[in-house]
Design a protein that fits this description.
Strand order of the largest sheet: 1-2-3-4-5-6-7-8
Largest sheet: 8 strands, antiparallel, barrel
Number of helices: 2
Oligomer: single chain
CATH architecture: Beta Barrel
Number of domains: 1
CATH topology: Lipocalin
CATH superfamily: Lipid/polyisoprenoid-binding, YceI-like
Radius of gyration: 20 Å
Number of strands: 8
Shape: elongated
Strand content: over 45%
Length: 184
């Protein structure tokens, strides 16, 4: 009986130790920007779910495409219906790893340049990406930032000939997230 109790406490301790290594958010922010001759296109989504397992560097985020907000409702409608086909492909995601996670010390208040690599899925297409960013640490809270560019054609997002001058072939994506410990 004594062994069972000891095993139970060891399992409970290990479970708490693992959870203490996880950081999450449900209110991350992703925006994108496209510069084109006739008009710039930009949108913001502040309902991004993200999680970081600090012990392994595993990182994941998921975003609902219909949650992107545009300055013009017609842009939003075209984005969801004609380009990303939100009903068919409701979300985008990234699953990967911060490769230099060991460079980050959560006990120190500072900012560290990080490297992330993994799979970015948009419009049902998954591509490998490598990008850099920063993680700022202040009082145990992690603030992540990254900016990178994708090609629409890589994700099978086509631009109709009638608006080819209105939309850039590249999109600049900016990620801003504030991650808190899971057990907070």
């Amino acid at each position: 009986m004594k062994k069972i109790i000891i095993v139970f406490f060891i399992m409970a301790f290990l479970s708490l130790a693992v959870n203490a290594q996880k950081y999450i958010t449900k209110t991350g922010k992703i925006s994108f920007f496209s510069s084109a001759p006739l008009e710039n296109i930009e949108a913001v989504n502040d309902q991004v779910n993200a999680a970081l397992d600090f012990s392994t560097g595993d990182f994941v985020f998921k975003v609902l495409m219909k949650s992107f907000e545009f300055p013009k409702s017609l842009m939003q409608e075209h984005f969801n219906e004609n380009y990303v086909e939100s009903d068919k492909y409701p979300d985008a995601s990234f699953t990967g790893k911060i490769t230099n996670i060991k460079d980050i010390n959560v006990a120190n208040n500072n900012t560290v340049i990080v490297q992330a690599q993994g799979d970015l899925t948009i419009h049902g297409v998954t591509k490998k990406i490598n990008t850099s960013g920063t993680i700022g640490i202040k009082n145990g809270v992690l603030t992540g930032y990254s900016k990178f560019t994708i090609l629409l054609k890589d994700y099978n997002i086509s631009i109709p000939k009638t608006v080819v001058n209105n939309i850039s072939k590249t999109i600049e994506i900016t990620v801003n997230i504030i991650l808190n410990k899971l057990n907070n």
